[in-house]
Amino acid sequence: MSALPFTVLARDGRARRGRLKTAHGIVETPAFMPVGTAATVKAMTPEGVAATGARLILANTYHLMLRPGAERVAALGGLHRFMNWPYAILTDSGGFQVMSLASLRRIAEEGVTFRSHLDGSRHLLTPERAVEIQRLLGADVTMALDECIPYPASREAVASSMQLTLRWAERSRRAFRTRPGHGIFGIVQGGVHADLRLEAAARLVAIDFDGYAVGGLAIGEGQEVTFAVLDATVPALPEDKPRYLMGVGKPADLVGAVARGVDLFDCVVPTRSGRTGQAFTRNGALNLRNARHAEDPWPLDRDCSCPACAGYSRAYLHHLTRCGEILGSMLLTAHNLRYYADLMEDMRAAIASGSFASFAAAFAEAHRGGQAS
Ligand SMILES: [Zn+2]
After folding, report:
1. Kindly report the CA angle at 213 between 203 and 230, in degrees rounded to 5?
2. Cβ-proximal residues to 128 (8 Å cutoff; 6+ apart), any chain
3. CA 32 to ligand 1 center in whole angstroms
4. Can you tell me whether residue 12 is helix, strand or coil?
5. How far is the CA of 302 from the centre of ligand 1 (A)?
6. 75, CA 20 to 30 Å: which among 9, 42, 315, 373?
7. What pLDDT sits at residue 373?
8. Closest CA to 201 of 209, 222, 220
9. Ligand 1 centroid to 281 CA: how many Å?
10. List of residues 6+ apart from 242 with CB closer than 8 A
């Protein structure tokens, strides 16, 4: 029995309706994790995040190890207390940000040496240190350190990176201290190559993690390729453990991945879009910067109960966005996170009632043509 219990409550095709029991509460799956990079979901209070329905957020090891520092967060009572978020937290391993943000990276068997993008200071991130940092932060879900290589890359480069990730996964698992309500996930790499993905999945399952992530996707390969990798990989993962697709995605990506058996997601799309004037609705995305909203007295979405839709017109949101007002970012982020949470809730209900296929068909129909009216 895992220290981080996960129960599949219902199945509909390959889609699953599940429940993850963490030290900081229950997470109903499929679930979307808002991204709280620097121990804050940008433009949101923790109360506002919780009000959207989110019960699990993601925080970034790379950012927090550099500033304010994991030991400082631990001395202040851990990340939950530090950021005033009482529900569950998943921390990434730092691997992805080291690759995308840090300079002068040097990858060796021991770990990755890099210079901070903030002040140029030199750091070594090993699998053991990545796990220790996440324990100091108090993460409910810890991620094993992986190497993320850019897309496209040669098959040879993908294969040798995957082998390193597997050796780091073993070291990460060994370094993890088991505590009730806490767990560690391994990350399946292997690029777009089904055989490499299957080898990675089999070896991670042999190590025995509390959950399995599919990494190295949503980096430019396109939705069709992402789905093909999921079709190859997900059936090789254990039925009784949660599956997490990292860094995905847009609403249509989530629906397609849930259909393929994925339980957890994170992505900056709803929060970042909220800060650039984009809103997601049941009929597609809206760009609030567009002049056609300038005199529109209606809310973003008449069926949404978020603070933005309860009291504000598209015309006002257009005005705030055009003026670069902070309130525009706050309201659109709150709306987008509520939209994502509602989408996940609708998918959970559809799976539970055995109607996921008709839900997915109705979703595709409503999103045909891209922009909403
Ligand atoms: Zn709304």
Report:
1. 90
2. 171, 172, 175
3. 17
4. strand
5. 8
6. 42
7. 59
8. 209
9. 8
10. 6, 18, 20, 29, 185, 210, 211, 212, 263, 264
What are the beta bridge partners of residue 58? Answer: 35, 90
Residue type, 161: S
Percent of the chain having pLDDT more than 70? 99
Q: How many whole angstroms from 337 Cα to the centroid of ligand 1?
A: 9
**Residue ranges with CB less than 5 Å from ion ligand 1:** 304, 306, 308-309, 335
Nearest to 80 by CA among 31, 23, 131: 23
Mean per-residue pLDDT over the chain, rounded: 96
Query: What percent of the chain lies above the pLDDT cut of 90?
Result: 92
Q: How far, in Å, from the CA of 209 to the mean position of ligand 1? A: 37
What is the pLDDT at residue 101? 84
Q: How far apart are CA 286 and CA 271, in angstroms?
A: 14
Residue 208 · residue 173 · CB < 8 Å:
yes
Residue 351 CA, ligand 1 centroid: distance in Å: 24
Rounded Cα distance between 13 and 237, Å, is: 16
Query: Cα of 342 to ligand 1 centre, how many Å?
Result: 10
Q: HEC string of 208-224?
A: CCCEEEECCCCCCCCHH
pLDDT at 99: 84
Contact at 8 Å (CB) between 193 and 158? yes
- Write out the catalytic residue numbers: 92, 266
For the chain, what's the residue count? 373
Look at the pTM and tell me if it is higher than 0.70.
yes
Indicate the residue type of 109: E
Q: Where are the alpha helices (DSSP H) in the chain?
A: 46-51, 61-66, 70-75, 79-83, 95-100, 127-137, 155-175, 194-207, 223-233, 251-259, 269-275, 307-311, 314-323, 326-352, 356-366
- The label of the residue with tokens 């539970």 reads 352
Structure tokens at 20: 């993850």
C-alpha gyration radius of the chain: 20
Q: Could you identify the residue written with the tokens 């923790």?
A: 46
